[in-house]
């Protein structure tokens, strides 16, 4: 397996873990499969090494990930604020997984930025803006879970990973690549999958637990989105779905219910760029996906205060939902040449 790491970074990583006594592991707000998978995998490895570790999420994570081992011991900052603040006071080591800016911790931003112990970042998003003692950032890797496995393997720590940790890693790799349909062209990705299979994962069970446990309300929300809310604009090779807070409430929206919904317009023949707009209490959440060489992350950075990967990005808008959608439609006119020439 090709290594991406300098020897001094691996030594530094091993030394931090060896010396740590109380370890916190934190993902970004609205944690997805990659974030939760990486956190629970690392927690399991550390505990198998005899270390004390805690996973703390800024807010609730999707139910379809709560079958992973260790998910029942996760602290939710929105729910467990006092306990979390006490853990931060006592801990000596903090792992920041799957985010590159403390802003992505939202209400936990100050806890993260003011932490006085060792801070380690492991992430695959471009242009990290956090201050850490050790930064392991590789945007060319498909997922933070894949990157974490590579680090553990290079440091000789995968011997402390059981089938449970391997399934958490596979969950993150699978969900962050759309079931290996994008950002998953490196042979190294499949070499790691081979290693995970050797460790005993049941890939079919993982797939079923993630994708075959939708609630009736979630399916009806998807049906409503496709029938009533999906707009296809073939003249710009683009499409979008927008959902108001009223619509989300109507279908009893739960965290994770819109996971993957942004990809549906991209499945229409000829479409290379799409968006999902979700109305929240104080902002519009924007998710963007693209095919080929159209840079969704640059589009998001310039127009929606966001960023991400070339073909998968996110952002936000302080306009109303209708105004945000109108802005997106007007921007497509500006980008028409790039969209028509995307390959």
Descriptive account of the structure:
The structure is a single chain. By secondary structure, the protein is α/β, with parallel strands linked by helices. The protein folds into two domains: 7-211, inorganic pyrophosphatase (n-terminal core); 216-340, Diaminopimelate Epimerase, Chain A, domain 1 (Roll), CATH 3.10.310. 40% of the residues lie in helices and 17% in strands. The protein has 13 helices and twelve strands. The chain has helices at residues 7-19, 33-48, 81-90, 109-113, 144-154, 163-176, 187-198, 203-211, 216-229, 245-250, 296-303, 321-334, 336-340; strands spanning 22-26, 52-57, 75-76, 93-97, 118-123, 134-137, 230-233, 238-243, 273-279, 284-290, 307-308, 312-317. The strands form two sheets. The chain has a six-stranded parallel β-sheet with strand order 3-2-1-4-5-6, with helices on both faces. Strand 1 (22-26), helix 2 and strand 2 (52-57) form a beta-alpha-beta unit. The two termini are 30 Å apart. The model has no long low-confidence stretch (mean pLDDT 96).
Largest sheet: 6 strands, parallel
The assigned CATH architecture of the largest domain is Alpha-Beta Complex
The secondary structure category is alpha/beta
**Overall pLDDT confidence:** 96
Q: Which radius of gyration do the C-alpha atoms yield?
A: 20 Å
Tell me the fraction of residues in β-strands, as a range: 15-25%
Count of individual helical segments: 13
N→C terminal distance: 30 Å
Strand order of the largest sheet: 3-2-1-4-5-6
* Beta strand count: 12
Query: What is the number of independent domains?
Result: 2
Order of helices and strands: HEHEEHEHEEHHHHHEEHEEHEEHH
Label the overall shape.
Answer: globular
| Percent range of helical residues | 25-40%
CATH class of the largest domain: Alpha Beta
Uncertain spans? none
């Amino acid at each position: 397996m090709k290594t991406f790491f300098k020897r001094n970074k691996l030594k530094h990583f091993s030394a931090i873990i060896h010396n740590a006594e109380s370890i916190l592991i934190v993902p970004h707000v609205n944690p997805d499969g990659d974030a939760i998978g990486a956190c629970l995998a690392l927690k399991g490895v550390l505990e198998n090494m005899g270390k004390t570790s805690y996973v703390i999420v800024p807010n609730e994570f999707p139910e379809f990930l709560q079958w992973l081992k260790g998910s029942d011991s996760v602290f939710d900052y929105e729910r467990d604020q006092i306990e979390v603040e006490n853990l931060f006071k006592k801990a000596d080591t903090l792992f920041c997984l799957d985010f590159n800016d403390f802003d992505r911790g939202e209400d936990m931003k100050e806890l993260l930025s003011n932490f006085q112990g060792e801070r380690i970042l492991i992430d695959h998003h471009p242009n990290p803006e956090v201050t850490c003692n050790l930064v392991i950032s590789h945007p060319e890797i498909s997922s933070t879970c894949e990157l974490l496995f590579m680090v553990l393997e290079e440091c000789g720590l995968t011997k402390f990973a059981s089938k449970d940790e391997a399934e958490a890693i596979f969950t993150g790799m699978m969900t962050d690549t759309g079931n290996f349909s994008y950002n998953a062209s490196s042979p190294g990705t499949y070499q790691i999958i081979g290693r995970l299979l050797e460790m005993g994962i049941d890939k079919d069970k993982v797939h079923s637990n993630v994708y075959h446990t939708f609630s009736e309300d979630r399916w009806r929300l998807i049906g409503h989105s496709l029938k009533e809310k999906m707009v296809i604009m073939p003249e710009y090779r683009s499409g979008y779905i927008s959902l108001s807070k009223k619509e989300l409430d109507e279908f009893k929206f739960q965290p994770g219910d819109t996971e993957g919904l942004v990809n549906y317009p991209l499945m229409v023949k000829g479409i290379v760029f799409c968006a999902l707009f979700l109305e929240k209490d104080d902002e519009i959440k924007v998710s963007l996906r693209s095919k080929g060489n159209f840079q969704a992350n640059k589009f998001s950075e310039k127009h929606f205060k966001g960023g991400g990967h070339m073909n998968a990005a996110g952002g936000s808008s302080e306009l109303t939902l209708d105004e945000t959608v109108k802005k997106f439609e007007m921007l497509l006119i500006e980008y028409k040449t790039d969209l028509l020439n995307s390959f």
